[in-house]
Amino acid sequence: MKFIGITGGVGAGKSKILGYIKQHYLCEIYLADEVAHLVKQPGTECYKALLALLGPDVAAEDGQIDRQVMADRIFADPALLDKVNEIIHPAVRLFLLEKLEYAKKAGNVELFFVEAALLIETGYRSMVDEMWYVYAEEKIRRKRLSMFRGYSEEKISRIMSHQLSEERFRENCDFVIDNSGSFQESRRQIDRKLEAFTWQE
């Protein structure tokens, strides 16, 4: 079984690429943002550590951590961001490694994917067998974000300014999917790369 990380800038189309892979290959796919939400559920070690760091009132009435309150605390004290990441990122990695081991033992998938915009920055390069970069030209990414998410040009520029450059993505990745053109061409790139694995209708 191959463990693959998928990363890329905002608007590159990572979700659509993963949707195709999920439909046609024997795989498990985890989105790091969703896992981060799971590991800080009430009762977990991560949850307890976050309450100890940010204060018990960061929990909403339903017991869940209030994302807006957490964001406000971090905005008021930027040094807290590193401390929050030091709690959440190891918990996410542990969750994924446990799922990976379970998948290996079960033996019913050939590919195990984790997706996040920050995989390179958060040290996944040393964990995965391969790192894939979903690339799309900036003007196309901007058009997608404006059209499908309703983002303003200012918001798009702000998000992009905080992400890795194309050069950094490319130098840290083993395989590049150019998702600038038709999705049919993107599918051909994926199928060529995964031709050694089972394809299903």
Structure description:
The protein is of the alpha/beta class and 201 residues long. It is built from nine helices and five strands. The protein has helices at 14-24, 32-39, 45-54, 67-76, 79-106, 138-149, 153-161, 166-171, 183-193; strands spanning 2-7, 27-31, 111-115, 130-135, 175-178. α2 (32-39) packs across α5 and α3 (45-54) packs antiparallel against α5 (79-106). The chain is globular and about 50 Å long. The mean pLDDT is 95.
Biggest sheet statistics: 5 strands, parallel
Mean pLDDT: 95
Structural class based on helices, strands and sheet pairing:
alpha/beta
Helix percentage: 40-55%
Radius of gyration: 18 Å
Find the count of extended strands (DSSP E, 2+ residues). Answer: 5
Indicate the proportion of strand residues: 5-15%
N-to-C span: 20 Å
What's the structural blueprint in terms of helices and strands?
Blueprint: E1 2-7, H1 14-24, E2 27-31, H2 32-39, H3 45-54, H4 67-76, H5 79-106, E3 111-115, E4 130-135, H6 138-149, H7 153-161, H8 166-171, E5 175-178, H9 183-193
Helix pairs in contact: 2-5, 3-5
